[in-house]
Amino acid sequence: MKQRIRKVLVVDFLSKGNSHLNFNKSFLKALKQIDFNVSFLGAISHCKLIRLKEVKKISVKTNDLNWKTSVFRCFKTFVFSKKPNEIIILCFDNYISVSLLLLAYPFLFRKKFTLVFHNNLGSLIIGGFKSYPFKFFIKLYNPKIIILSKNGFNQFNSLNLSKKVFLIPHMNYKHLYEPLEISKKKTPFITISVIGRHCQTFMDQITSSVKLSAFDFIKFNIYKNITPNKQYSNVKIHTKWLDNYELNKVLSESDFCFFGKQKDTLRASGILLDSVTSGCPIIAPNQAPFNELDIKKIGYIYNSINELKEIFEKINTHKISRNYFQNNEFKYILEKTDINTFSTTLKKTLNY
Asked: Does the predicted TM-score (pTM) go above 0.85?
């Protein structure tokens, strides 16, 4: 007897444009690999970039709205649209989105929910008044919870909010990128790129503690519209926002990608997986999520500013480039985090 194909609605209340695009596309692709009939509801600017023909899109106009109003509009469309029994929420806040779901309980109580945590896990762990709606939601709906990092999984479990918590490590994006033809380096310099939220950390913490001008064979590229507190001859600010193709190109041509120490160690790092995907060696602090992968085999781990200085000095003195690190080490991590491994674990989770 032919097995019935399960239908699922995937919802993203928050993402617009390229925000979380690679992860959302990968998650939808994983669902298709395990034979789900998939629909996706989200902002129209995000839906246009999903570009998966086999996924039905329910687009919501949120372009000129702030995030709170966008959540209300997405939720309105969600409530009044035809929904299958299974619903997966990919991106949400702990307060407004969850409060609205609580209010709509009379219309949704028969639905089976799965929540995927991204950036909002840290605020939930801290607790406070705004965490109450989420706690009520857990008791009322009893959803499955998917956490993408080991540290986040352990911390969430320590709250004893639910027994239906699952760890599915963040996938890499190798399946999304076509191989690039990388041109030969035009300069003998070693390039270290800093991307996203790590730019502010670099400018605030590293430039004030490390004499960057001492490393005459290293060029630091900062990819964010940010104003440096001091000018350095070997630090270049790139104000243009990188789309996914440009990000892959930058990481494919850089010798290293730098990561600064973060207060929030609970969430997975998309840029880390982008770097692994592009074969770009890592310079990262000895904290989660970086130490959850075998980073020492594809880069350097530091515990302090002094250790970071030593790493820069070593790279500068010996002119260590990306070619110093073995491709088979990247291959090992890529195999551990590939889309097929993610799909297999996701299938077990959804069938639980």
From this structure: yes
